Amino acid sequence: MSRKYFGTDGVRGHVGHHPMTVDFALHLASAAARVLAPNGGTVLVGKDTRLSGYMFEAALEAGFVAAGVNVILMGPLPTPGVAYLTKRFECDFGVVISASHNLFEDNGIKFFDGTGGKLSDDIEAEIERHLAEPPVTRESSQLGRATRMDKSRVRYQEFCASTVPGLDLGDFKIVIDCANGAGYKVGPRILTDLGAEIVPVGCSPNGRNINLNCGSTSPELLQLTVPGVRAQVGIALDGDGDRLVMVDHLGRIVDGDQLLYIIARARHEQNQLNGPVVGTVMSNLGLEHALAKVGIPFKRARVGDRYVMEMLKATGGTLGGETSGHLLCLDRTTTGDAIISALQVLAIMKQTGCSLAELAAPMPKYPQVLENVRMVRKFDVTASPLVQEAVSHAERRLGDTGRIVLRPSGTEPVIRVMVEGSDEKLVRELAGSIAASVVAAAQVA
Fold it and tell me: Chain centroid to CA 432: how far?
């Protein structure tokens, strides 16, 4: 079943523009209630720190209560925290109001089922099918109730800590950048409870500064701060707390591919790794080669943590992720969780006595250039003869030493052009050439 509004990570868009309007949110809540809790039930609702979160929270609450669904309002809480507490409180489903790594002008609405997992494409399509129906309002005796349970976030903090039993970070100085987002309370508190000395960055949200020059998508301040305060490591979350980027003691970024390698190798050495490690078509070739060197099988899924999850379940794997820092440690939790992933890496540093730089060193990183070509309207880029010719030319020049990935973003109106190879100068030249062909093709499409 095709989906009009749901992308790779829920419904997302510019606030005040369809579909991110109060009216749509109300209809979406009613449609979701029809599909996920047709006989009434309970939904847990969390959000990040965007100003528009209050508006969408109120609209969703009204739609759910009118449909006979009880609502638990958690306030700001990382997306994986909502997933965990949805299952912990035995709710029928969970909702997160967030546009993840986007700036505050955007927002989004995404769902979890009662197990804390993401909805299937078919269920999302079924919810969309009900959007055309007017919002349901039950009789007064059948209406739902709304309860605010902000303080229950401590249960999520305790759960995160439980994934690294006995970990003592008393000799660690850590800079944590929470992107002025959903993790700004729980992130620092978890690390402090484990004994770490912390230096907080991006932990002062004002509704408009989420992901603004901070967090996993803009870690420059973190890179300066870590060596500046002589910390061992830096941790950067994105706005909703499911992406992780780390920084070593020299201020160098350690991305999702490198973190996946570190965790996978440690699990493998402890005989705790099941199935293959799963990355995506965008994962660096260096990850695949480094894992092969130590005997760990590797598979590639489509871009999007939901597709990594699907392949892990299909292959019996427990560890996967994306270069961007969406890491899935299914032996610890049900969804991508930046805090839990960071704790796994910190535990490995503690156990081995190695620095983050030493742990990441065995994985080579092939030069990889990503060009984002913004589109005014959608078109099938792969069907364009102009683009096909540019890609074929690039593939001939790369030979067997590189890769090309061309795909539309699932969250933004852009075409992503990725070129990877051993010769950085050539990679940059070819990425620019293909991007130019996409721009030209879009003008005549």
Answer: 27
> What CA–CA distance (Å, rounded) separates 179 from 237?
6
Q: At what angle do helices 285-293 and 256-269 cross, to 10 degrees?
A: 10
Q: Which of 412, 420, 380, 405 is nearest to 302 (CA)?
A: 405
- Cβ neighbours for 401, distance < 8 A, ≥ 6 positions apart: 421, 422, 423
Task: Please name the residue that has the structure tokens 């959903």.
Answer: 182
Active site residues: 100
User: Any idea how long the chain is?
Assistant: 445
* 104 in Cβ contact with 53 (< 8 Å): no
Q: How far is CA 99 from CA 50, 163, 345, 425, in A?
A: 9, 27, 26, 34
Coil vs helix vs strand at 357 = helix
Hunting for tokens 């979350």 — which residue is that? 237
Smallest CA-to-CA distance from 257 within 352, 346, 363 is with 363
Kindly report the backbone phi and psi dihedral angles of residue 86, in degrees, each rounded to the nearest multiple of 5, phi listed first. -60, -45
For residue 186, the tally of other CB atoms under 10 A from its CB is 22
Predicted confidence at residue 445, as pLDDT, reads: 60
Residue 339 corresponds to which amino acid? Answer: I
Structure tokens of 166?
């006995």
Q: Is 282 exposed, middle or buried (0-12, 13-18, 19+ CB in 10 A)?
A: buried
Four-residue CA torsion sign, 371, 375, 380, 383: negative
Band (pLDDT 50/70/90 cuts) for residue 306 is confident
**And the tokens for 95?**
């909702």
Average pLDDT, rounded, for the chain: 95
Which is nearest to 312 in space by CA: 333, 293, 329, 337?
Answer: 329
The model's pLDDT over 246-301, given as tens digits with 9 standing for 90+, comes to 999 999 999 999 999 999 999 999 999 999 999 999 899 899 999 999 999 999 99
Q: Taking residues 113-125, what's their average pLDDT?
A: 93
pLDDT of residue 379: 75
Q: How would residue 1 be classed by pLDDT, with cut points 50, 70 and 90?
A: low
Cα–Cα dist 198/434, whole Å: 44
Q: For residue 257, what pLDDT is reported? A: 98
Per residue in 176-226, pLDDT (tens digit) is: 999 999 999 999 999 999 999 999 999 999 999 999 999 999 999 999 999
What pTM was estimated for this model as a whole?
Answer: 0.89
Q: What is the dihedral of CA 219, 233, 359, 166, to 10 degrees?
A: -130
Q: Before 80, cis peptide (omega within 30)?
A: no
